[in-house]
Design a protein that fits this description.
Blueprint lengths: L4 H11 L3 H4 L3 H9 L2 E5 L4 E3 L7 E7 L2 E6 L5 E7 L4 E2 L1 H6 L6 E4 L3 E7 H10 L7 H21 L2 H16 L1 E4 L2 E4 L3 H7 L4 H13 L4 E3 L2 E4 L2 H6 L2
Antiparallel strand pairs: 1-8, 2-7, 3-6, 3-8, 4-5, 4-7, 9-10, 10-12, 11-12
Length: 232
């Protein structure tokens, strides 16, 4: 299925909130969107496994996607969550090598899928479309370097605070200009930082006791993002 103009424009208006897509010439962005198909994934469905052959580019329309890898013992290590407007899968799309991680639908989700063949056709018609991925790849690399630096230079508490700030910017349900509500479990935070739930609980309780966050059922409320930033 290829989108008609009205559907493409509607999706563009929804997805242009993403800074990367907003930085792209609208005509190119529209062609990219129009090359895709909508696919639905039930909660718990694996979109692609690590080392699987790449099958194209994805964008989250609704729901939430978990990107993760696994230790030899089978323990899941969460890398990040992908929210509506987030694109993923571009690495295997461009280098034709296997997937670097697993992605799983953490909620019932709808994705826009641009297949390998559709992307090749798009490049043959519009060669400049390939260049729009350079800023996205640079953004990924910068984030990776930041995470590696944090792991080597910051305490676990400081890493936790930085991860909470990152999640607030990516998936926080904004409750005001300077506040956010994160629907994330302590177990998930522990998986992201490769530590125990007990350690995460300790530092979250300390942040709560300092009045910086509020622990609520099913999530974490950050009343003032500036106060959380200053606690690093």
């Amino acid at each position: 299925m290829t989108f008609v103009t009205e559907q493409t424009e509607s999706l563009y208006q929804q997805l242009v909130q993403n800074p990367w897509l907003a930085s792209i010439d609208k005509a190119l962005a529209m062609k990219l969107i129009q090359a895709g198909q909508l696919k639905n994934y039930a909660e718990g469905s694996v979109i692609h496994a690590r080392n699987a052959k790449g099958d194209g580019l994805y964008c989250v329309i609704t729901g939430r996607i978990r990107a993760s890898n696994f230790t030899i013992e089978g323990k899941e290590l969460v890398l990040t969550w992908l929210m509506p407007g987030s694109w993923f899968g571009e690495i295997s799309l461009l280098d034709s090598l296997p997937r670097t991680h697993q992605t799983t639908a953490e909620q019932d989700s709808q994705l826009l899928h641009v297949s390998n063949s559709a992307f090749k056709n798009l490049i043959s018609e519009t060669p400049e479309i390939e260049r729009i991925f350079i800023p996205l790849l640079c953004q990924r690399i910068r984030s990776l370097f930041s995470i590696l630096e944090d792991a080597g230079t910051l305490t676990l508490k400081q890493q936790l605070v930085k991860r909470l700030l990152f999640l607030a910017s990516e998936l926080g349900n904004k409750t005001g200009d300077e506040s956010a509500m994160l629907e994330v479990s302590q177990e998930s935070l522990a998986m992201m930082l490769s530590t125990s739930r007990q350690s995460i609980n300790k530092w979250l309780n300390e942040l709560r006791d300092d009045g910086i966050i509020e622990l609520q059922y099913g999530g974490i409320h950050i009343p003032n993002l500036a106060s959380l930033t200053s606690s690093i």
